[in-house]
Amino acid sequence: MPGKYKFKILLVAFITIIMFCNKIFAGTLSGNSFINTLALSGNLPVKELPSFFMLIPFVLLLVMIATGPLFYKHFWEKHYPKISIFLGLIIVVYYIFILENYYPLVHTLSEYISFIALLSSLFVASGGILIKVDRKSTPFANVIFLLFGAVISNIIGTTGASMLLIRPYLRMNKDRISPYHIIFFIFIVSNIGGALTPIGDPPLFLGFLSGVPFFWVIKNVWAIWFITILLILLAFYFFDLNNKKESTKHVEYSGKIHFKGLRNLFYLAIIVVSVFIDPQVITWVPSLYPLPFGIREIIMFSVVFFSYKTADMQVLKDNEFDFEPIKEVAYLFVGIFATMIPALQIIAEEAKVFGDKLSAGIFYWASGGLSAVLDNTPTYMNFLSAAMGKYSLNVANKAHVLKFVEVDDIYLKAISVAAVFFGAMTYIGNGPNFMVKSISERAGIIMPSFFNYIIRYSVIILLPIFTVIWLLFFTGRTIL
Amino acid sequence: MKSVEEAIENEAYGLYYGNRALLPFPCFLLKVIIDDEIIMDFSASSKAIIVNVFSDITEIYFKQYQNLKDAVSKFESIKLIVVEKDKDIFNFDNHIKIVLHVEDDHKLKIEKTDEDILFIE
Prior knowledge:
heterodimer; A: two-stranded antiparallel sheet; 19 helices; globular; B: mainly beta
């Protein structure tokens, strides 16, 4: 059976199962507000905590994602969709038949659809844009380029910025490219840059939907963002300064920037605006409950269709556009989203129990450490819930969230920063990381393995910088 | 015998049958990218590729794939860095970057990469 049919059949099968779950319990809920509250709170009704054994599929999937491309590449390439869906189905079956608790499944499906809608629409729309920067690559020019990427990722999201800028960045550096160029791009544009606005990264967007004011992030996090970006750019500058690669051919540069695919900029604007088309943000937007998606997701999937159908074929060809990277993300994250349900429930409960003993520093390291290997959105929501629990406030109540922000914002700062920043620690920490890796490999760049990425780059460069941020802002002795 | 440059100039097609590609010129291969796989081991023990260079064609088997049509999508291509059989392999000016587009009827369209296509040596 051709791969494309397998993909469709498996995806439809999984969605059908989840829809079935939705149907089972739809009648038991009092209405739309309940499901929205669930989605916002990250605090899923717990009938019974899952067994610790149910963490095995999640750990197994993470281990396979890490080791598959390294030790059994072709088996993994051929079978990862089946493995990911199978491990996810173990959890689905466990929740339906053993725990008889359907809420986390529907909540997770809804989050997964939103996640894929945003990622796929940004991926396809930016795939139809071709930017060429015809100028000599220098360390300083690269620093300016990465800084621009960090800023723009707050306007079109880290995924949009990554997809839009990775190809021009590779083209600009094609004569002296090394893996570190891509890794710093992942650090800055695909992750840390997007920490200033709720559009930048999904956890901040969910925080905004829960009641954190839109401009709270930029007002409170800008200093941390600025210091972190500055330190990483400094590290990059010294790496790049030592790059002695030269072009094998004499090349004349015009200094011009070429741009093709203006129509797709319009599609990107639609995606950014559609982020706000949510009944929680705009009251007149209709809810499509009990469907696990809303008008926003329909708009985003429509953008996928129309931006692909109307794209300039030559631009798609020049960008070597292919659905494979987004397909890979869709398959892997269907497994990750499903298998991490027990992990998140256990974390949420433990955080509540030990909430009083947890300092801002612990929130910073714990939410960061988990965001590096789990999806950062539910991690953010669970730790926010735990932090608010210290003040007997409920994350499902917008007034409580506002009060929490006013009373003591150091916890929210710690969680917001860590959830976004630590996504850069691994290839699986944030959606665009994998896509940037895949595009780079297709261009001929041999990228570091999962472990090499962590050991040679994340631990050496990011960890010391994150430690400095912790010492400056979250040790209880606030210096700045 | 056609040279690589002649074949490209005359818009000559290659052929593919399943995982076997036939190029209408003899050449040395330096680097091949198919899908996200970067192949640089062309030894007899390579797990990824078998290359046979004859007097007027180059035959390539992509061992990891059953059918090139399934491995390479509409806007993608197989990328190769090649050197004409009788040219100095150590002179970078002789390194030719070409792309193979997998088309219908077993045809492989051969083109030189333009500046827009990202292909890093």
